[in-house]
Amino acid sequence: MSNESLANLLKEERRFEPPAELAADANVTAEAYEQARADRLGFWAEQARRLSWETEPTETLDWSNPPFAKWFKDGRINVAYNCVDRHVEAGNGDRVALHFEGEPGDSRSVTYAELQREVSKAAHALTELGVNTGDRVAIYLPMIPETVVAMLACARIGAPHSVVFGGFSADALATRIQDADARVVITADGGYRKGGASALKPAVDEALTKPGTENVRSVLVVRRTGQDVEWTEGRDVWWHELVERQPEQHTPEAFEAEHPLFILYTSGTTGKPKGILHTTGGYLTQTAYTHHAVFDLKPERDVYWCTADVGWVTGHSYIVYGPLANGATEVLYEGTPDSPHKGRWWEIVQKYGVTLLYTAPTAIRACMKWGDDIPAKYDLSSLRILGSVGEPINPEAWMWYRQHIGAGSAPIVDTWWQTETGAMMLSPLPGATATKPGSAQLPLPGISATVVDDEAKEVPDGGGGYLVLTEPWPSMLRTIWGDDQRYLDTYWARFEHRYFAGDGAKKDTDGDIWLLGRVDDVMLVSGHNISTTEVESALVSHPAVAEAAVVGATDPQTTQAICAFVILRGTAAEHDTLVDELRAHVSKQLGPIAKPRRILPVAELPKTRSGKIMRRLLRDVAENRALGDVSTLTDSSVMDLIQTRLPAAASED
Ligand code: 6R9
Asked: How do residues 392-403 score in pLDDT, each as one tens digit?
């Protein structure tokens, strides 16, 4: 599609009606909104019945001590039983749960019956290592089936897990082990990424030399790459030795609905990591329901693939708990999208006939940069719904995703949520909502959200402000691990009785919600609030730009000055007038006030594991400060590259 026709499409504020076939057979229709509006708690009580409870809850929500919620508190349930055993008992033991695809090309399919045996053995193994109900287990693994097995085994015995992304350093791992006071670490010799074996065990060895990690009794090690590992006798145990010799049957014990399920540290893009605590019954209810509703999952027919890493909340909720609770067949891919070639993802879609794909805007923009001809080489006709998560998706990327991956017809569900919310909160429903490129649109049934101004007043259609959640929801965080006060201060202090998400948002004239990025990222330029997302989106709408990151740098005249870092498309060359051209382009799209003061073409942008741009670091660069904490960056050499380019390439008025 030419850029001009794209611009026209977007100008019309075009909506895309759901495909008739999908709408006719949708799991969830517009009626669900009515039902939930009429009786919100009754609606969630009904969704909880999607699960198999040992003791059915009689009370839906206890909100007597806000914001400390108790959902389904008198119910008792086992999460692993719900994600595995019950599907086997229902006669679906031969259904594939996981199609594992290793980066080097090895593959393995695990049925629900096999998964049940593996999880049972691993549960016995953890018990043999002395893990009791309530003990924390740290998981530091690549994207392999054992990771899913390990998480489910913890859930089965009521030992909360803390998954730490395999790309994190020994220091980041140590901090998380200390904070959760973990007793066991599950890791691997290494995993395959970017075409090679990358070690994990040395980081565990190093982390366990740090103070505060003494309570770790055992390190359970999966052999994945076969690389050499240091061995601490009496502490280290091979997975294949310990787990393999355990019995294949294990009786799951039911736990209270509010029993802790996991802690997941969110570094966010700013500040010290927070241990977000999720519990059992409410979390599983909402992840299962939203996965069923937003992906319209038909477990007998669909092949679902979420490309997230399991170290991110998306991997927890939409690789492990939601899809498996629903009996899905899904792909689990170990590696990066460009190993060994840039068509790898599309090759996998073709190989397994993936029907539902869930990925992040950053990945979509990378694919755009690599070129349309790459996905065009593969048969992607199986795809019927495309999901997006992690950041606002700019309309250009949205359209590209629809055209080049979704054959111009697959609905895109742009799902807004957070580690803290546990499950999706805002999203179109693929069979009921006419979708709009770039907007997460509306709260899901049973969810209450709105946009308010500084005074906590709801903004009218067309207005902008802050996204807030106005009623408790089942999969909400229960607290920050060990720090109730920080939980109150971070989320519940800014607006009374409302959860403050930390995201800027606006409502369009139809009342649809558009996310504008973290409020810390909103810039103040000569008295105007300007969203980094909008300037980035304007930059990316220029044919030369693949990706952009915008920050406000302190400026004596204008409070903040807009600084942009751009990655050029594969086909675009950097030339003398490009920067001026881009500045003029933004000015034309958004007005002269939004014209960036400086634009710096760079090769890479600093990102977290979930692909979010760390603007805090770019602000440090733009303000010539020493860099803050870089431990959650996927690749810290990126910052050196950017800094060396700074003085020469900047354009000043
Ligand atoms: C699931 C996840 C949460 C933050 C959130 C927001 C951004 C996520 C988004 C989105 C716009 C979407 N975010 N999804 N912004 N549209 N569809 O990403 O969790 O890593 O905790 O990040 O991500 O800023 O506040 P987490």
From this structure: 999 999 999 999
